[in-house]
Amino acid sequence: MASAGGDNELEVSNKQVIFKNYVSGFPKESDMYLNTNGTIKLKVPEGSNGLLVKNLYLSCDPYMCNLMKKSISSTANSFEPGSPIFGFGVAKVVDSGNPKFKKGDLVWGKTGWEEYSLITDVQNLLKIEHTDVPLSYYSGILGMPGLTAYSGFYEVCSPKKGEYVFISAASGAVGQLVGQFAKLLGCYVVGSAGSKEKVDLLKNKFKFDEAFNYKEEPDLVAALKRYFPEGIDIYFENVGGKMLDAVLLNMRTHGRIAVCGMISQYNLEKLEGVHNLVHMIYKRVHMKAFVFSDYYHLYPKFLDLVLPHIAEGKIVYLEDIAEGLESGPAALVGLFSGLNVGKQVVLVAQE
Fold first, then answer.
1. Which residues, 6+ apart, have CB-to-CB distance to 115 below 8 Å?
2. CA 53 to CA 104: how far, in whole Å?
3. SS3 35
4. Could you give the 3-state DSSP secondary structure of residue 319?
5. Which part of the chain is the Enoyl reductase (ER) domain (predicted)?
6. Which of 49, 112, 143, 203 lies at a CB distance of 3.0 to 4.6 Å from 117, suitable for a disulfide?
7. Residue 227 · residue 190 · CB < 8 Å
8. pTM (2 decimals)?
9. DSSP letters along 201-245, please?
10. Measured between alpha carbons, how far apart are the two ends of the chain, in Å?
11. In angstroms, how far is CA 157 from the centroid of its own chain?
């Protein structure tokens, strides 16, 4: 549907995924709904330095469930009931009030879960210069998850050839990359995942040295001792809870832990405690939390490393693409039961 307004601006229909209300515990599909009655003018308002974009791909990420809760950290804005949810995505510029961007540019960054978005904060919106890879990659390997993996592994962990590396939630958007970075550096790499299919992927597709299904391990401490008889140098933390406790008992002296996420805790009304922190003292372990936006300045350096590896087939990336904006809520909620295999992406529109 398209109509011309009285001011000769084209107005089109704009499907949106609307957030219903704040949640506790696990998010459900019914916490969101598809609004098919919205419209938008394909023109940036007079005097705005924002962008009007057509959304192509939307990224489903675990942190988004935290934005569905009322009480979250002061560093992030919750979703607003009655408004579209938002996250990272890939989009095409339809109209620009900003000298840095022009009509037809491809960009990635924060956008709304809708067909078209008016983006007023363009500060962290990045122009896509390399289009010889799938555009969806900019919601994954070349977007937020990719820069997260790069900065967490290289900057936070300061890895060295031959070190012993463990990655939890290893088949996810970030973990699959950290493992491949570690292998390229000459490390011994083990990952944990939640199904036989994902364990097979880690070993066969992503070339991890070993992998295990944490759901089949009654004793995580013993499992880690089995795979790391000499201990762990680097732990890339995506899970938290019991896994972190088990890792702390298996760290080597001067080990490093990059705290990227704690997906096991996001949907709990009462967070689990961690009991083995004292071992950080005995082993002089360095544990640091980080967010990828601390490392935006390294994005060009990251591309210089990863683009040649992709072109040469030294890094592979697995995506799970759900088609259509209406499939978005199910795809997002599916992250928390492990339904996705690889990076979960929603295809909104072809370019």
1. 12, 13, 14, 15, 16, 54, 55, 325, 348, 349
2. 9
3. strand
4. strand
5. 50-346
6. 112
7. yes
8. 0.92
9. HHHHTS--SEEEEGGG-S-HHHHHHHH-TT-EEEEEESS-HHHHH
10. 19
11. 19
The first and second tokens of residue 212, run together, are 């295990």
Q: Which letter, b or e, does each residue of 129-141 get, where b requires 16 or more Cβ atoms within 10 Å of its Cβ?
A: eeeebbbbbbbbb
- Please report how many Cα atoms fall inside a 13 Å half-sphere around the Cα of residue 261, on the Cβ side: 24
Helical ranges in 84-219 per DSSP H: 144-150, 175-185, 196-204
> pLDDT tens for residues 142-187?
999 999 999 999 999 999 999 999 999 999 999 999 999 999 999 9
Nearest Cα neighbor of 156 from 237, 76, 75 is 237
Question: What's the CA gap between 234 and 158, in Å, rounded?
Answer: 9
Query: What would the two tokens of residue 188 be?
Result: 């011994």
Question: Residue 48 and residue 120: Cα distance in Å, rounded?
Answer: 8
The enclosing H or E element of 325 equals none
Q: Is the pLDDT of residue 101 over 80?
A: yes
Separation between Cα atoms, residue 21 and residue 23, nearest integer Å: 6
Report residue 116 as tokens: 């078209």
- pLDDT tens-place string over residues 178-197: 999 999 999 999 999 999 99
Report the phi/psi class of residue 98: left, alpha or beta, with left for phi > 0 and alpha for psi in -120 to 50: beta
Distances (CA, A) of 221 to 200, 213, 224, 227: 22, 14, 5, 10
Per-residue pLDDT reduced to its tens digit, 254-274? 999 999 999 888 877 788 989
**Long-range CB contacts (< 8 A, 24+ apart) of 44-48?**
44/95, 44/96, 44/97, 44/118, 45/97, 45/118, 47/97, 48/97, 48/118, 48/120
* Ordered DSSP codes for 248-285: HTSEEEEEEEEE---TTTTT-SSPPP---TTHHHHHT-
Task: Report d(CA 203, CA 199) in Å as an integer.
Answer: 6
Beta-bridge partners for 87 = 111
